[in-house]
Design goal:
The protein is of the alpha+beta class and 41 residues long. It contains one helix and two strands. It starts with 5 loop residues before the first strand and ends with a strand.
């Protein structure tokens, strides 16, 4: 489903951080173009 697609990841400091989402999408064939973990207050 994500094979060959570029993805931008915005993780949440109090929820799911960016690196955790990266580890989930990489095996699906996605290329991570941007990944960050932010604090949304």
């Amino acid at each position: 489903m994500l094979k060959g697609k570029k993805v931008a990841i915005l993780g949440d400091r109090d929820g799911v951080p960016g690196p955790a989402i990266e580890e989930c999408v990489k095996p699906l064939g996605a290329e991570v173009a941007f990944s960050a973990t932010e604090c949304f207050v």
